[in-house]
Amino acid sequence: MLYVLTALKCEAAALEGLPGEHIVTGVGSFALKAVQGIELKPSDSVINVGCAAGLSGGCYLINSVTDQDTGRRFYPDMLTGSSLPEAPLITSSSIVTDPKPGYLYDMEAALILSHVLKKTAPSRIAVVKTVSDDGSRRPSANEVTVLIRSYREEIGRIIDSLCSDEEPVNYMPLHVSVYEELRLSQYMRCEFEDLVHYCVASGKLEKLNGILGEMREKGILPAADKRQGRRALDEIFARIR
User: Fold this and answer.
1) Model pTM?
2) Which CATH architecture best describes the domain 2-163?
3) 74 near 90, Cβ under 8 Å?
4) What's the pLDDT at 195?
5) What residues form DSSP beta bridges with 129?
6) Which residue among 3, 91, 119, 121 is the one 20 to 30 A from 41 at the CA level?
């Protein structure tokens, strides 16, 4: 089953007729409750489509989602068949009026991914956001529908890619000893697992293994305690991204 998730009815209106079960989730905590109510299976696919605030117009395939409140990062797989440019997304619990260059902002994607990634693989998930405003004004419902509808063809191609049957990908290829070396708390382990997902999806697993090897040579790993593990994890994030 493919689930097409939009936060607003006006966003869903632009996608009527495309494959999948269409669900309007609402924003913020409403979106999380909505996806928790879906009986997701590992074979299911999910696409979240909607509008976002940003300084550069257009429609983007999201390559990372950061929860502004918790700092947690999520990485949906990158679809090679899409011609959309990529962009990072930040999910905020309030309306953003001053977006930073190079980032898009919404109020639901991180909450959706926090649940969906527990149920299905990153290769079965996509997030697509269309820039509707720069934070200085809120577009009307009709403006949102027209805007997203203008990218309907490309969104349809991504949906078709998600519906295709492909061999499963191993998103956790690292030995359990790596997690032990980093001395990660449960929260940091979740962060690291998200990063490993991203490295597999983006073809950067070899780079990650190289960084881990360098850290062992320098004595950074194994980490002495969780504090050193935190510093090591932050360095890995900085060098990978």
Assistant:
1) 0.76
2) 3-Layer(aba) Sandwich (3.40)
3) no
4) 83
5) 50, 60
6) 91
